[in-house]
Amino acid sequence: MGKQGLFVGLVTLDLVYLTPSPPGINQKIVALDYSVTAGGPATNAAVTFSYWENIAQILGVVGQHPITHLIRSDLADYRVKIQDLDPTRLEAPPVSSILVSNGTGDRTVISLNATKSQVAEENIFSHILQDIDIILIDGHQMAIGKKIAKLAQAKNIPIVVDGGSWKPGFEELLPLVNYAICSANFFPPSCETTNQVIAYLSALCIPNIAITQGEKPIQYLSKGIAGTIEVPVIKPVDTLGAGDIFHGAFCHYILNQDFLPALQDAAKVAAKSCQYFGTRQWMSQESLLL
Questions:
Q1: How many structural domains are present in the chain?
Q2: Domain housing 95
């Protein structure tokens, strides 16, 4: 039986279009393909984690708006359980419109994050961590994330942070985590370079730190040892969600192996996912079971 993971953060509805090129001003174009899925960093990571027959739960805001059935249906297809932080909410969930350029895999994203659907930490109780083996927090529900991290630390449950971009409150959350895996766009206050970011995170006594940089090598600092990890060279079809998929794969691998091999294997899965349109098609390839 697989492990159990709790993924804390943003839940969106993603409308993704594959286009010949980004449209110009006042231009209409016809998409080559499209997909409609649940999205958000923690959500995509949860779906990825479930790929290895692990048990994944997403802790976020969904509510009762009519379009949430699309989110629920997609997550049910991938066996991801929803722990709804605001089940009576009637407003529409955040919706992302995403254009992926055919040929390059570059994406253009218009989205609304969780700023209008924040939930107070008193809604969380310790029983939610029962039987949980690993936790990922993306920072989009910061108050909830900090409460979960404190509860998890007391229970020795490993915590992974997905640092896509800096958000107020990370300065309180980060000292509680075991693994900080951040993008090249993650810049804490007064940080302008990757080395400064790593120094900032290291000063918070985070034992394992990694900075992903797209097709460039991953930089890491693990228990005082620094280095880089090469990522697979591919021709991308769609880079959407690659970081989220990386994080979900990392959560799977880190429960079975050390930090550096987990980073390497997660990078392989993320690279494979970029060779398919959307954030789900790669899962139909059994050869990805590394």
A1: 1
A2: 4-288
Q: In degrees rounded to 5, what are phi and psi of residue 171?
A: -60, -25
Instruction: Note the residue count of the chain.
Output: 290
Q: Are 68 and 95 in contact (CB under 8 A)?
A: no
- Work out the burial of residue 235: count CB atoms within 10 Å of its CB; fewer than 13 is exposed, 13-18 middle, 19 or more buried: exposed
Tokens of residue 112, six digits: 């609304």
Q: Copy the structure tokens of residue 272.
A: 């494979």
Q: Which two tokens stand for residue 266?
A: 């997660």
Name the helix (H) or strand (E) containing 43.
Answer: helix 41-50
Q: What CATH number is attached to the domain comprising 161?
A: 3.40.1190.20
pTM over the 0.85 mark: yes
Q: What are phi and psi of 144, to 5 degrees?
A: -65, -45
Identify the CA nearest to 43 among candidates 84, 2, 3, 90.
84
Tens place of pLDDT per residue across the chain (290 aa): 689 999 999 999 999 999 998 888 999 889 999 999 999 999 999 999 999 999 999 999 999 999 999 999 999 999 999 999 999 999 999 999 989 988 888 888 888 776 666 787 766 767 889 999 999 999 999 999 999 999 999 999 999 999 999 999 999 999 999 999 999 999 999 999 999 999 999 999 999 999 999 999 999 999 899 999 999 999 989 888 999 999 999 999 999 999 999 999 999 999 999 999 999 999 987 555 55
| Distance, CA of 281 to CA of 91 (rounded, Å) | 30
Helix (H) / strand (E) element for 221: namely strand 216-222
β-partners of residue 37 are 14
Q: How far apart are CA 113 and CA 161, in angstroms?
A: 17
Give the integer Cα–Cα distance in Å for 208 and 261. 13
Distance CA 180, CA 202 (A): 10
